[in-house]
Design goal:
Helix content: 25-40%
Strand content: 25-35%
Largest sheet: 5 strands, antiparallel
Number of helices: 7
Strand order of the largest sheet: 4-1-6-7-10
Radius of gyration: 27 Å
Distance between the termini: 39 Å
């Protein structure tokens, strides 16, 4: 939570001020990094002054961050790079040379070895990677994308993305439900979440929920329409009739997939074919039908 608050401070407040901690003119005028979070004992050596490290503190050229035992510091640099300094560590912020070394210089941190000097003393610096738009995985909303059964709990699936993710479902321009998952590519709609209304269109999207990311990776918005009660009842009756037919299992699977597809339930149609193929049905023909349905599932 400290990191999240710290990022809000960085984005909302003018770069030249911080009400959270004292800074001298050098760090005020040309901040090169911000202390986003700390755990345990963190000290900022600014010349001969030893300052207590607090979240939101601006760091300038030559500032040294020191961590004690069982301590760590998360630092966000002007370029969006995030670095965590481990216990008993030391790090000195160094400039790339010449000119304005402040937050508005895009290439200040072009080469890490010119910028960060990790001191000895048993500590180590762990670079978690650049958490910016250029280093995020593309997220693609997979399903549902056309229709869903409003009386059931749909499973939302996507590809890409990692770490903490946030899924948002909207209806008529308002947030219907919002939740979070970690290192997952699907989420079953919770039983205690608000119910879907039959015959209504909903939108949903997934994005990264990294407090140190300057730009979050976000999927495109996908849409689906819930079946109303009458349509769901008619669908259920038709599926029962198809299942009871005295036909080959592969034929029944294709017929059921066709019925589901006609109701816009492309994901369920594909799932029926997946089961039939796994059961050793007429694999070549079923695979071809499944391929056509997968193509139809994309705009």
């Amino acid at each position: 939570m400290r990191a999240r608050i710290g990022l809000l401070v960085l984005l909302i407040l003018p770069l030249g001020c911080s009400p959270l901690s004292p800074v001298d003119a050098r760090a005020q005028d040309s901040p090169m990094a911000v202390l986003m979070a700390r755990q345990g004992e963190v000290t900022i050596m600014r010349g001969t002054d030893a300052l207590a490290g607090n979240f939101g503190m601006h760091l300038g050229l030559g500032d040294e961050i020191r961590t004690g035992s069982d301590s760590s510091a998360d630092i966000l640099f002007a370029t969006g790079q995030a670095l965590q300094l481990g216990a008993n560590g030391s790090l000195v912020v160094q400039g790339a040379g010449g000119g304005n070394d402040g937050m508005d210089t895009p290439n200040v941190f072009a080469q890490a070895e010119q910028l960060l000097i990790v001191g000895a003393g048993g500590g180590k610096s762990l670079i978690g990677g650049v958490r910016s738009a250029g280093n995020t995985d593309e997220i693609i909303a997979v399903s549902p994308r056309r229709a869903a059964r409003g009386q059931e709990r749909p499973v939302f699936r996507w590809s890409g993305g990692s770490g903490d993710l946030q899924i948002t479902i909207e209806h008529a321009g308002d947030v219907h439900w919002q939740g979070k998952v970690s290192d997952a590519t699907e989420l079953k709609y919770p039983a205690d979440a608000p119910s879907f209304v039959g015959g209504e269109t909903y939108s949903w999207r997934v994005k990264t929920d990294d407090p140190l990311a300057l730009v979050a990776a976000e999927s495109q918005t996908a849409f689906f329409t819930t079946l109303d009660r009458e349509e769901e009842a008619a669908l259920a009756a038709t599926l029962v009739e198809v299942r009871s037919a005295q036909l080959a299992e592969s034929t029944i699977a294709v017929m059921m997939a066709g019925v589901l597809f006609d109701h816009g339930l492309v994901d369920e149609a594909i799932a029926v074919l997946d089961v039939a193929i796994a059961g050793g049905g007429e694999v070549e023909g079923l695979t071809a039908v499944r391929g056509n349905l997968r193509g139809a599932n994309w705009p």
